[in-house]
Amino acid sequence: MNAPDTGADEGYVADANDPPDGTRLRALVDEQAALRRVATLVAGGARPAEVFSAVADELGRLIGAEATFVSRVDLSTAGGPGRLTAEPSGERGELDGYTTVLGSYGRVSGEVPVGFRVRLQPGMVTTEALQTGSPARVNGEKLAKGPFGVIVGKLGLRAAVATPIVVGGRYWGVTVAATSREDFPAATESRMADFMELAALAIANANAEQELRELADTQAALRRLAMLVARGEPPEAMFAAVTREALRHFGSGTARMIRYELDGTATLLANEGTTGPHVRVGERWEGYPATGLTATVFRTGQAARVEDYRDIPGGEPYLREGLRSAVAMPIHVEGRLWGAIAVGSGEGPLPPDTEQRMTQFTDLVATAVANAQNRAELIASRARIVAASDEARRRIERDLHDGAQQHLLALALRLRFAAAPEESDEIHTEITDVADGLMDVIDELQEISRGIHPAILSSAGLRAALRALGRRSVVPVQMDVRIGGRLPGPVEVGAYYVVSETLTNAAKHANASVVEVDAEASGGALRLRVQDDGVGGADPQQGSGLAGLKDRIEALSGTFSVHSPPGGGTTVSCELPVPARNRKPVD
Q: Tens digit of pLDDT for each residue in 422-442?
């Protein structure tokens, strides 16, 4: 280590009685004390942000700088982002990447706060340090007219020194110190390099801890989302949850999800964070730039990035909502481009590894979408089967009513007319008995046809049909039906059979003395409850008609439950969605 110039080093003030190498010794002691303080922070489990700020603080005090900051460097090179190998020496060509401030000290903190992100540019002292792999110094007019000239002038800074930070054999970042004095002492570069070489271990530990925490947070988020998928939550809830998590982990301004429609348009499914007049969840996503994220992902099926919306034609709406940059990841479902999820930042370009880190989220969204689609297709298939069965039952009921029943009724009437008084008593009695038998058959057919499909349900609706069930029940029924009009056919049929089957069970199996039926259509749903005071113990899993009712109701996207403790009666409850547009007035 070269001896520093003692005249301007605030870390130590030389004493006239010191030996010739006293200043150098005291500087070494100061460095070791500073490193011990940083190491104590790391050992105590301090958060990475505290460690980075402590490194900046200790370095500033050590070399007498009035402003210092520690930055992570994200380089875009042939080897991938942030993968520039630290070589012993040698000039490198132009570098493309960004620096992000992780810790700052002194007067620069207000102008270059933690999180400040800037692109590497020619003429920057950080760029020069990374290009040469060695400490770099800039002062005077070159500093004043450089990329940070405005900040330099505002703070009255006149000189700066930058030193690369090497972690694990690769360039992790860079530290910069600045002063309002004319220049730093001659040996400042070596002192900074020596200190940062030793501090790199603490930075590596803090960085590793930060990565572990980020990984743990990401895994926790993925577990939360996976639980939503496993529970079969509605797609809308899943989309909103994924978007919230994406903003929390990857963006600092906004996160949104879109779906590509088959007609070439796009729909905004969820949005968290910044917004604007163009952000309308649930509506078409329109007016996006031709070279922006939505169009690029749709065209290529691959990830897309906007480094600065000021450079994108049509990017003004995003600038007005406070965004500067954004990244979008495609969502592929069963081999087809389904949509995209995007995150944005108002503080500068997002880290170059954002796309890679978001992959797990998009994979989970794809799984959720595929599950939701399969579930929707299954529900639709079950609903079609139920509808087809109901239609077949209606057709059989009509055929019985208009065909067999009418024919038998005509035969019965003819027999009655044939039983003339002049016939012998024996023949008259025989013909009358046959006619009565035919009327009994007609009554039985009517009961069968009502079981197949009640005609009153088609002609008068659910309210009248439920009251008819109550009148025919052998167990007294207390009926409360609050339905103001006709409901969709499948809903009326499903509710009818729930009440019919439950009344039958109450009479045959429950030994009930009374049954209460409560039905109400309001708030976009039909809620039905049938309760008896019987012996209880009903179990839908034992192959009873209750299992079939459950399948029917769930096929209509409804819910069905049975509460039947032994000795405590049985309560059957169900709820069926009723879209407002499907409500019909009473004829």
A: 656 667 677 776 766 666 666
Identify residue 530 by its one-letter amino acid code: V
Residues contacting 58, CB < 8 A, separation 6+: 34, 35, 37, 38, 195, 199
Q: Two tokens at 524?
A: 């976009």
The tokens describing 46, both together, are 């301090």
Total number of residues shown for the chain: 587
Beta bridge partners of 74: 98
pTM of the model: 0.53
C-alpha torsion angle, residues 294, 97, 345, 165 (rounded to 10): 150
Q: What is the pLDDT of residues 160-207, one digit of tens each?
A: 899 998 887 788 889 998 888 888 888 888 888 888 877 777 777 777
The closest of 238, 323, 243 to 289, measured between CA atoms, is: 323
Q: Strand, helix or coil at 137?
A: strand
Answer yes or no: are the C-beta atoms of 397 and 453 closer than 8 Å.
Answer: yes
Unique residue bearing structure tokens 């045959």? 508
Number of Cβ within a 10 Å radius of residue 21? 10
Q: Give the CA distances from residue 111 to residues 68, 106, 120, 152, 393, in Å, rounded to whole numbers and listed in that order.
A: 12, 10, 17, 10, 78
Residue (of 466, 493, 485) closest to 477 by Cα position: 466
**Cα 101 to Cα 275: distance, rounded to the nearest angstrom:** 27
Long-range contacts, 83-89 (Cβ 8 Å, 24+):
83/170, 84/130, 84/170, 84/171, 85/169, 85/170, 85/171, 86/133, 86/164, 86/166, 86/169, 86/170, 86/171, 87/133, 88/133, 89/132, 89/133, 89/134
Work out the number of other CB atoms within 10 angstroms of the CB of residue 422: 6
Cβ pair 365, 331 in contact under 8 A: yes
Burial 125-139, CB ≥16 within 10 A → b, else e: bbbbbbbebbbbbbb
Residue 517 Cα distances to 406, 476, 507, 520, 523, angstroms: 34, 11, 14, 10, 19
The two tokens of residue 522 are 């309001």
E-only strand ranges, 427-551 = 477-482, 485-486, 515-522, 525-532
